[in-house]
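Example A, followed by Example B.
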Amino acid sequence: MIAELRVRDLATIADVTLQLGRGLNVLTGETGAGKSMLVDALALLLGERADSGDVRPGAAKAVVEGAFEALDAATRRRIEALGLDVDDERVVIRREVSAEGRSRAWVNGSPTTASVLGRLGALLVDLHGQHATQSLLHADAQRDILDAFADADDERAAMRGAFDALAALRAEATALAARRDEVRRRADYLRHVVREIDDAKLRAGEDVALQDEARRLGQAGALGELAQRIADALEGGDANAMAALAAADRGLTALERLDPAAGAWREMLDAAYANLSEVARLASDYAGTVQEDPARLSEVEQRRDVLFRLMQKHGATLEAVLATRAEAAAELDLLDTAELDLRSLAGRRTAAEAALGSTAKALSARRAAAGDRLTRAVNRLLPQLGLPGGRLSVGLTPHPEPTATGAEAVQFLVQLNVGLEARPLSRVASGGELSRLMLALKVVLARHDAVATLVFDEIDQGVGGEVGARLGSALAEVAERHQVLVITHLPQIAARADQHLVVSKESRGGIATSDVGAIHGEDRVLELARMLGDAEGDAARRHAQALLGSVTPRKR
């Protein structure tokens, strides 16, 4: 609900703060005092188009701030879905309009756009009057309201689930058929890829092995010479390493006789002898096996050329070439399995279509029954609210096929006078008649309406007397479950207020300036008497006191 609304330098308003409470908040005042400017300010706060002409003369900018509190969990989730933060169940909106026409907005201190502000405003306030921001004018809102009135949450969820399941199957079948058709177009190429790679009889790691062999064959002479040089250094001639080790062994034997502790060296000397002996053998064997073999080198290079060409065509590495072959084979396999899979999907899709149709039928039945109940309830109220020829009907127009929201479009149709054609609610001219129609809907839908705050401007246009009293009663009934702000000139409505605010206007510094304040007790009697036409007359005062006395206080 709106806890506070502050307006600065907007048209005739210099600086006004409204403290609003639960229940019915009534705003009254002389014609032209600036009552509607406060509604204009609220509309601006909720995303209405900004106009530099609204800035108070001499001011640099107009500022509107509103604090919204006591937000329920569902509303908080919807606000957070807009990417906005909710601090302690409280949202503070600020909107500025410069004298040059620039507009800026913030939500809880973070900058936002007018578009986001509009979507946020639709969650917080339902505004009825000269502004076209009423949520009930939108087709989606009408559908949601009817479904809430029908207690169709389970059917709606089932509808969404059935639709999504069918959509997923259709998408899967479409994707599979597209892949199959693509494989058909590429089948000859894919078969060529598989055959070419298979003919090469590739082995994992073959490219590395061939590279190493080619390097050895290309430098066989130098490699053999180097290996033989190592073998000779270890065992060839008199001054080789092995001979030196033998001399060391003899010396160690003699040393051990004199100092047995030197025997600890024996193990290291033996290990050195064994290691060098093994190196000498390996080098000698290597020198014997590494020989120049031009024929084998030619074979290796030819094989490397085969691998190189395949890697140029099918992958940067041998592993990538083998992966390309596997992928091509898998695509070709799809030709064998796609038809079977598509037949299976078709069967599942048929079952899903039947489930969707059954679910849609259940939701449609609930909507039809709820539409009848809703129209009967609203139409009983319309004559009491000054619309004796008014009629509401709920149109259910079938879709060519069910959608995620059901098998039909929901549209509220209105006939405001006898003999006139019923028209969509969104096309009915705004004003008092539309506001009263909205009020009738709100009375019936009060238990189901998710928007916490309702604002009515022009609702009493062209009515008075007993109809005015019934309007007041209907507003009070809606205020049992919602915060309601109504601008009125009817004392029958004002007498019902839980909080009565009065707007006045006077000249300050040569500029018309509006103020607003809450009134109580005798001040309310005087204001109601003024609204009755004679603020000073005893008869009007007695009538005002009677109106206040006839209202039963509501528990809150």
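Example B, a separate protein, is given below in the same form.
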Amino acid sequence: MTLNKTVEQVTDRIRTRSRDRRSEYLERVEAAINDGPRRAELSCSNLAHACAAMPDSDKSDLKGNQAPNLAIITAYNDMLSAHQPFESYPSRIRDVARATGGTAQVASGVPAMCDGVTQGQPGMDLSLFSRDVIAMSTAVGLSHNVYDAALYLGICDKIVPGLMIGALTFGHLPAIFVPAGPMVSGLPNDEKNMARQLYAEGKIGRAELLDAESQSYHAPGTCTFYGTANSNQMLMEIMGLHLPGASFINPNTPLRDALTTSATRRALAITALGNEFTPIAKIVDERVLVNGIVGLHATGGSTNLTLHLVAIARAAGIEISWDDFADLSGVVPLLTRIYPNGPADVNRFQAAGGMSVLISELLTDSLLHEDVQTVFGPGLAAYTKEPKLDDAGDTTWSPGPQKSLDPQIIASAMLPHSPNGGLRVLDGNLGRSVIKVSAVKPEFHLTQAPAVIFHSQEEFQNAFEAGKLDRDFVAVMRFQGPKACGMPELHKLTPPLGVLQDKGFKVALITDGRMSGASGKIPAAIHLTPEAVDGGPIAKLRDGDLIRLDADAGTLEVLIEDSIWNERQLASADLSASRSGIGRELFSVFRAQVGSAETGASVF
């Protein structure tokens, strides 16, 4: 079928825009491919160090330079439920590699912080910067240059994007991303959200709230709502970097283990020592990135990806912009209803047909590039299959469901939940920002109300508890950008704003910070750029200024005479409290070097 015209046009303009940068990147990759792993050229001392801790059989294989050696880059730790299952993965991968004629080594561990733990806490100021630390940590591990391919063990918010940036920097190496899957379902997400709102209203106490949260987050695996972590998993699969159907199989199950075994075998098969050499640089191109954006829109995914995909693309020598996101959102229908865009969690999404049905619907509607390379082989059509266990306990793939098993969770492209993806770019005299409206009711797409200025979530919470916000208003949360304090997520604002909206008030949020994958029913113009500390117009706003946020028209403006606005001075803020403590002192160089939200908020 003919590719959707807008998808084709956006892909072509990305290719044109990126031509020089992409060419330089591919030249570097080709030079590294020609050099190959340097094991044969290492000094005896170098090589002895590289395999000193390996069993004798592995040493013999590694020294011979003919058996492929896999790097394992792991984000394992016990504190992240999504990453705890990775504890046992290296042993399995090493055993499978040996049985398949190769070797495997943990090349490095990368940091992995949980945004759920740091929400509203000082540590959240390190969250976004951790992505670039992860990329650098990946580079440190791979710098030993004794590997033929890499397996990346990571799932959550900044971890997968950081691993992707690192992997693409070593674009000459094949790469497969190996997930651990979502935790089994607990308390439904809408009930958890109700408990948070009741707590914000003072109708339940902390004990009841903690009980609800503990019923929601209760087992190994990814949190079951469709936030950044699960958006990452969708992204890796639709971009062809997972094995088909790998994203949403629960941890510690036979199929999950079999998929890890298959990923190891496949990684060995696609090295330069085999017949199917597939470096990641030859997978991630303009078409694959567009497929990722299409998947983001079709699932109502995390707004964090408007930062991360830009940074990932740049690591591959490709330049994508928020306008690309906006134009694709206009033609990609919303096909899924997964919390916060609906009541279902990712386990119900998987049961309804999961990624195989989603990709099938998007291919049928000509919204995806099918003619791409994947870690599984040529063509995205293979990702309409789903994994099963054969009689020997190995993975086999068979055709997935022909249509959704629950249209309330996964709709058809002919009868979507919404005709567009719900992600918009807002422009106006306050700058540029993104807004996700897939969970916002149409009557709230336009908000015109006076500004109330805040410089911290605590300041907002105090005003809410004092009853000062029982009215129509636009909350302006500024000095939250990457240069100011690392661009933290601002989820403490969501429950009280939800309470006020339910009371009948017209409320909205404008911020140069983030709201991320759990953005919900409140209209929120986020990632505003330029940020306040960088001279952005948001720093000119004063209490009472009339603001108009129109998600349908794509505008964000302060309604004030130009002569007054142009003469108004920028406000300042004391940021010293957010620049020390909990390790924030160590990140001053990141705050000084970081780029804007629209360029990926990266230090590279």
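On Example B: The radius of gyration is 24 Å.
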